[in-house]
Each structure stands twice: as structure tokens, then as C-alpha cells.
Amino acid sequence: MMAYAVLGPSGTFSEEAVRLYAGCNIEVRVTENIAEVFALVEREEISDGFVPLENSSAGMISTTMECLSATSLKIKGALEVPVKQCLLANGDFTPDQAELLISQPAALEQCRQYIKSNLKRVRIEIADSTARAAQLVQGEKRRAAAIGGRQAGRIYGLNIIATDIQDGLNYTRFVHVGKNGSTEVDRHKSSLLLSLPDKVGALYELLGVFARSNLNLKQIDSRPGGSQQEYIFYIEVEQGKNDIIMELFLEEIAPYCNWSKYLGSYTQRRIIDVDCGPPYAS
Predict the structure, then answer these.
(1) Which has the closest alpha carbon to 192: 237, 225, 159?
(2) Which of 42, 126, 161, 195 has the fewest Cβ atoms nearer than 10 Å?
(3) pTM for the predicted model, two decimal places
(4) How many domains does the chain have?
């Protein structure tokens, strides 16, 4: 039986998404945070991890990016899932009566307009995950609410007092990470991490190498690196090549980079509606 580590506690969107990705006949081990998922797989205490990489509203998940940079793990697959956020309450009250809102930062960003319009005077506290927020709300004496999925509401006995509170169409992309790369034959995407010298034209020169190699760039994101001057770039190209070709490409870009890391070539799938996937395990 396949085993995956995911962000916990039980009831997170990560737990729901991994069952859509791999089916219900898997073992799921929940962790305290995303960094622990990477640590367990890196130490080979569990074979695979499944973590959020990017949200259509909140952007790239910084902890996942940091862990991809700091560990030896590769991306083995990806799944884009629609995320429908609910307001989960520990009592029978309306949203405007809530005294406290507990949530995970990315979920707050996904529901920014709803919070601005309906929860104007609420106190906001931060949790590591939407399921952890629901867990905390369950034990609150105040009128408290969490942002999360229906599954978390059922697990922690909370009332759903508002549904679909996310701002528009809201997708989260999750990635399957492991010690080895994907074994699938049909891979259509490759990912890289790299750092560029702090000089004028560094990115322009690098992009020229991609063009000469006929690699179509689909995404470039950057974040601060280990020093004040360094920025780390996450790059995706479509029509993923095999591992040997991509490793050779890293040799081509080496003169233009401080360092680079090949994260793997893999297949990405998209779920149109969560109801179309396999049922969630209880």
C-alpha cells in the first residue's frame, strides 16, 4: 500500500487532495507542518509526500518553495484542485456575530473580500492549517469560526454557516514529492530552481538559453534567497523532457547561474470539480 505524508491534522485540503490524486486505498500520515512532510520523506521514514505548491489567489507557498530548495526531494507529479472554502462555526450564529476567526494565512488571502464584507470587526488568529484552525475553534468558548472545507467541519463537529466564501474561482496546485523522480512515460512539465548572479541582464541571458533549447517557459517565480542580494527562481517549462536531457540542460545553464537544481519532469492533472474524484475516506 502506498503511503503519503501530508499537512495535518486530519481534515486538511491536502488530505482530501491526495486521495483524489492517488485514490482511497492509500495510507495517509498527517504532520504538524509542511517542513515535517519533507523531513519524513528525506529520512525515508515514509516514501512519498503531497504538499501544496501554489494557490490561484494566494500565490506560491513559501514553505514548500524553501523545502524544495533545501532538500534532495524531486517532484513526481502534480494535481490542480478547486478549493471551496466554508465558514465553520462552533455554534449556531450568523457570520457577523462571530467574535474570533482562526485561519491559515493562505486561506485568509483566498477569502479576503468575504472577510472584508462580512467579518469586519472580528479578531483574527493564525493557525498552521485549515484543519488545525477547525480543531482550535472546536475548543473555543467565544463565538469562533474557521475557514476550511466541509470535511474539516464534519470531523470537528462544527456548523457550516457560509459556503463558497473564496474570492472567485480558487485552485490549489499540489505536488507529489519523493526521493526519486517520476516513472511515468508521458511527462509534460519540468521544474527547476536556480539562483542568478546579482548583475544587470542576468535573467535576460538565462532566458536566451531556454529559447535556444526550444523549451517553452510556462512560469517564473522568484523569492528572496539566503542573502540580501540573492533571489531564487522557480521555473517551469512545458513538454517535460526525460531526466538525462534535463540534467544536460542544467550543464548548459551552469555558466549563467550561481547554482541550479532540477526538480524533475512529471505529469500534471486537473480536477474540474471535487465531486468527480474518488470518495474521501472517513
Answers:
(1) 237
(2) 126
(3) 0.86
(4) 2
